[in-house]
Design brief:
- The complex is a heterodimer of chains A (391) and B (395).
- By secondary structure, chain A is α/β, with parallel strands linked by helices.
- Chain A is 33% helix and 15% strand.
- Chain A has 14 helices and twelve strands.
- In chain A, the strands form three sheets. Chain A has a six-stranded parallel β-sheet with strand order 3-2-1-4-5-6, sandwiched between helices.
- Chain A is elongated and about 75 Å long.
- Chain B folds into two domains: 248 residues, Crotonobetainyl-coa:carnitine coa-transferase, domain 1 (Rossmann fold), CATH 3.40.50; 90 residues, formyl-coa transferase, domain 3, CATH 3.30.1540.
- Chain B is 38% helix and 12% strand.
- Chain B is built from 17 helices and eleven strands.
- In chain B, helix 1 packs across helix 7.
- The radius of gyration of chain B is 26 Å and the shape is elongated.
- The chains are: A alpha/beta (391), B alpha/beta (395).
- Chains A and B meet through helix 2, helix 5, helix 6, strand 6 and helix 7 of A and helix 2, helix 6, helix 7, strand 6 and helix 8 of B.
Chain lengths: 391, 395
């Protein structure tokens, strides 16, 4: 349990990052680098990053400075306003990048063509520069001019097809998951290139990271699945092979909300049957694969819901986890998570005050180092640091 | 099979990782590091064969060496300590008490390697009220709020069905290891990292926590409906379980879509702006689905994208494998399983100085590298190796 924040030298102290990327993927990559100690200069067009216009807003009167999406994804950065679409602005951007280690942008092939920016443009003036290009589909290939949103990414990446009820519309993950995942890979790509540059004397690089490849990489089983198709399974875990899963690997209701039970192995299925007082089900061979015998799943759902009908999620969680050693968790809502005692005990969140948006609670970087979370500072106001860097 | 080439290429060559992780999150993270040339030594239990079900392990454990070692026997623990003494990083994802019972906590390991970097990946964290509770990717996503926002109706949350906390944690593992390995190289100081499975999805839901804490903002399950985009969802196409995702983000795209659908019912002036389309989303979706249900999803994607309308075929795993874009960009990798058998696997999404593709190798069998690891890396004599084999400490 920690009471303080990690105070030693941070890993990326001394690394300077310039970012023109907008929205979530590039900004989240740069936010991660900032949290690890890098100096991040966020370069915004005069109207600001588009995420500044994305609701919900924390202030009713000043939206530019109070979008939750912007506030979260730009912690720890400086904001400089310039317009790289005209020659004076581009010149200023070039000068900023000359002294940078890393440049993160999200210009797709149409933007690059319009502004006549080749991938070599910035590296020519700074051979040690690591330029990370983040686009939905990359700068080449049949989809390179396609329009994208998180829903589109999840669809082509094979993730959408896995979520939701079998005969119904496939469902998306909440918010901007493809962008966040790509952002983590962006931080990973930058750090690998820095390692190569700083420890092996490699020169700078132009790195092309795409959202679609990030998603394609995150399937648990190989995509060929022996020629089979992995199907979405509603409130159940989707099977990874024709062996399927026993019943009880599902999201079902307790007295005050839902619980998700994990599992898949015979050992966990046996523990679940023991907890329910129904070892006869474990011994019944027709209950070994819920996808071959859907009726068995419905029967066990019903038994589980009866067993939990008078128990709160907290009670089920405690008993199933500590007595029966079952992997299980309450389905927690966002407001419940903010009050959760486990998360509180590890400083999973920290309060940050912003001069316009006020106080809000932000997730901390998702790990502790020597028992301590890393401290995060507020996101910048539009152009707050223009003078500092350009004048 | 002769010993594989582990140290010749890739940015992370010379980084040696002792990998005790199992299942998905940990192995995904260490595989990513291995794809960039890190020398990953996977430590397995000789009594537990590596499952080949669904080839999940095969996929997640390429480019790693394998030593089979009984950590619960004193002689095996000694071998492990010797291994740690010549390693840079140890990563594990047991429940916290397992490492304590084996007496291989960070404190102990520091005695043999004073600047060791170690990362534990417990379900909920190494301390706190839930620390000893078991967790999977599927339950950690429930704890972290993902499930509470998936579903068709507000009062019936669903799980992703794909253990979403695992892949997020796997990528986060790479991020934190790279950072603190760098710090270790610069300062000579190791660190202990606690990366809880149930923490990782918090980071990808940040805006929801910020907005809920400040203005009590809540998002309930509501299909694929989006507060700013309409229409927005997956629409049934011709064929078995074929769908197209369409995501209209502005007026221009809506006008283009209407031209393609060419249905007078969509000319309703009330549909001209976002609030009108949101108010009539059900009716609009039904008209659209009448149209899409006669179409091929792949062809429709091309048709709409050519007009600037965000649309995508809802790909299944085989569609992704055969996707023309991913294939043209040479995303996939081909692993030589045997002289006759080359299998197509996913590649590496992270760009950069990866291990040369010709040197990528498939998952090593249980204990396949035990001999070379203890004799070459640890300098054990042949007699000592044979004695460990005989005692069934290694295999």
């Amino acid at each position: 349990m920690s009471s303080e924040y990690f105070a030693d030298d941070l890993p990326l102290n001394g690394i300077k990052v310039v970012e023109t990327a907008q929205g979530v993927s590039g900004p989240y990559a740069a936010k991660l680098l900032a949290s690890l100690g890098a100096e991040v200069i966020k370069v915004e067009l005069p109207g600001g990053d588009w995420s500044r216009k994305t609701p919900p807003f924390l202030s009713e009167t000043n939206h530019t400075e109070s979008s939750a999406l912007y506030l979260y994804n730009n912690t720890g950065k400086k904001s400089v306003v310039l317009d790289w679409r005209n020659s004076e602005g581009l010149n200023d951007l070039e000068n900023l990048i000359k002294s940078a280690d890393v440049f993160i942008e999200d210009w797709d092939i149409s933007a690059r063509t319009e502004w006549k920016l080749s991938p070599e443009f910035f590296i020519e003036n700074n051979p040690q520069l690591i330029e990370l290009s983040i686009t939905p589909f990359g700068l080449s290939g049949p989809y390179s001019t396609y329009k994208s949103t998180p829903l589109i990414q999840l669809a082509l990446g094979g993730i959408l097809n896995l979520i939701g009820n079998p005969e119904q519309e496939p469902l998306m993950l909440p918010g901007h998951q493809p962008d966040y995942l790509t952002g983590i890979n962006g931080s990973n790509a930058v750090q690998i290139a820095l390692w190569d540059r700083d420890f092996f004397g490699e020169s700078g690089k132009f790195l092309e990271l795409t959202m679609l490849e990030t998603l394609a990489n995150l399937h648990q089983a190989p995509l060929d699945m022996d020629g089979g198709i992995r199907r979405r399974s509603g409130h159940r875990q989707s099977p990874l092979s024709s062996n399927g899963f026993p019943p009880g690997v599902c999201t079902v209701s307790a007295k005050d909300g839902y619980m998700t039970f994990g599992g898949g192995s015979p050992a966990i299925w046996e523990q679940l049957c023991l907890m329910l007082g129904r070892l006869d089900l474990f011994e019944n061979e027709t209950f070994s694969n819920v996808f071959e015998n859907p009726e068995s799943g419905l029967i066990v759902d019903h038994i589980m819901e009866n067993w939990m009908a008078d128990k709160t999620r907290e009670e089920v969680f405690k008993e199933a986890s500590s007595v029966w050693m079952l992997p299980v968790s309450p389905v927690k809502k966002i407001n419940e998570i903010l009050e959760d005692k486990q998360y509180a005990s590890r400083h999973a969140f920290q309060k940050i005050i912003h001069p316009v948006a006020g106080e809000a609670t932000y997730p901390s970087p998702t790990f502790t180092a020597n028992g301590e979370k890393l401290k995060v500072s507020r996101s910048p106001m539009l152009g707050e640091h223009t003078k500092e860097y350009l004048w | 099979m002769s010993a594989v080439d582990t140290v010749s290429s890739g940015a992370l060559r010379h980084l040696r990782i002792i990998d005790l992780t199992r299942v998905w999150a940990g192995p995904l993270g260490t595989r990513t590091l291995a794809d960039f040339g890190a020398e990953v030594i996977k430590v397995s239990d000789p009594r537990i064969p590596l499952s080949r079900v669904g080839k999940v392990n095969d996929k997640l454990n390429r480019n790693k060496l394998n030593i089979a070692l009984r950590l619960d026997k004193p002689e095996g623990r000694d071998v492990f300590l010797d291994l740690v003494s010549v390693g840079d990083v140890v990563i594990e994802n047991f429940r916290p008490r397992v490492m304590r019972n084996l007496d291989i906590t960070y404190g102990k390991l520091l005695e043999v390697n004073p600047n060791l970097l170690m990362c534990s990946m417990p379900g909920f964290g190494l301390a706190g009220p839930y620390s000893e509770y078991p967790a999977f990717g599927s339950t950690a996503e429930a704890m972290a709020g993902i499930n509470s926002m998936i579903g068709y109706v507000p009062d019936r949350p669903l799980q992703t069905g794909l253990s979403y906390a695992d892949p997020v944690s796997g990528l986060n593992l790479v991020n934190v290891i790279l950072a603190f390995a760098r710090r270790r190289s610069v300062t000579g100081k190791g660190n202990f990292i606690d990366l809880a499975l149930a923490d990782s999805p918090l980071g990808t839901l940040g805006e929801f926590f910020v907005a809920n804490s400040a203005i009590d903002y809540k998002q309930h399950p509501n299909g694929n409906r989006h507060s700013q985009y309409a229409p927005h969802g997956a629409f049934r196409c011709f064929g078995d379980d074929q769908w197209i995702a369409i995501s209209i983000t502005n007026h221009f795209q809506w006008e283009r879509l209407k031209v393609e659908i060419d249905d007078s019912r969509l000319e309703n002036p009330g549909y001209g702006d976002l609030s009108g389309r949101k108010a009539n989303e059900g009716a609009i979706n039904r008209i659209m689905e009448e149209w899409t249900s006669r179409k091929d999803a792949g062809e429709l994607m091309e048709q709409l994208q050519q007009k600037g309308v965000p649309a995508a075929k809802v790909s299944n795993n085989l569609d992704v494998l055969n996707d023309p874009h991913l294939n043209e960009r040479e995303y996939f990798s081909y692993l030589k399983i045997s002289e006759e058998n080359i299998e197509k696997y996913d590649g590496q999404a992270i760009p950069g100085n990866q291990k040369e593709r010709s040197k990528w190798f498939p998952m090593r069998d249980l204990g396949e590298d035990s001999n070379s690891i203890v004799m070459e890396y640890l300098g054990y004599s042949k007699d000592k190796y044979l004695s460990l084999l005989e005692q069934k400490v290694i295999s």
